[in-house]
Amino acid sequence: MNKYEILKIMSQSPREIIIELAQSIMKKNEIKVIKKPCKIMVIINKKESGYNSNYKLKKIPACEAEVGLGEEKGIAVLSGDDLEKVLAMAVVDVAINAKIPESNYIMKELNEIKAM
Q1: Interval 64-111: pLDDT, tens
Q2: pTM score of the predicted model
């Protein structure tokens, strides 16, 4: 399973499941918050070829977070404003990146969620 699939599964999963996974990771590992969860605005630009100019196609509210574990980093961006879930997603991401012992369990849980 690649990074895109993992983040897609987490973003579509119920928030309680992802937060529960993150809490189990944080109990056993020292996770450092690099960038606190915050709200952002994602702007999608479109280039108009006829006039050779850009215009804003859409503005999407989102939130992002970044955490660290040792030398590894975990990043998550989520549309909407669920700051707790985006932080949990970043924690799960860093756990997978750092290949902690629980990462096999995390991947198993994500595969089960995907099969639902």
Answers
A1: 999 999 999 999 999 999 999 999 999 999 999 999 988 888 899 888
A2: 0.87
pLDDT of residue 94: 95
Q: Give the CA dihedral 69, 27, 65, 73, nearest 10 degrees.
A: 10
Q: How far apart are CA 105 and CA 8, in angstroms?
A: 18
Burial of 85 (0-12, 13-18, 19+ CB in 10 A): buried
How long a stretch of residues is the chain?
116
User: Which is it for the CA torsion 36, 43, 80, 108, positive or negative?
Assistant: negative
Indicate the residue type of 42. Answer: V
What whole-number distance in Å separates Cα of residue 57 and Cα of residue 64? Answer: 21
For residue 59, give the nearest of 45, 70, 73 by alpha carbon: 45
Q: Where are the domains of the chain?
A: 3-115
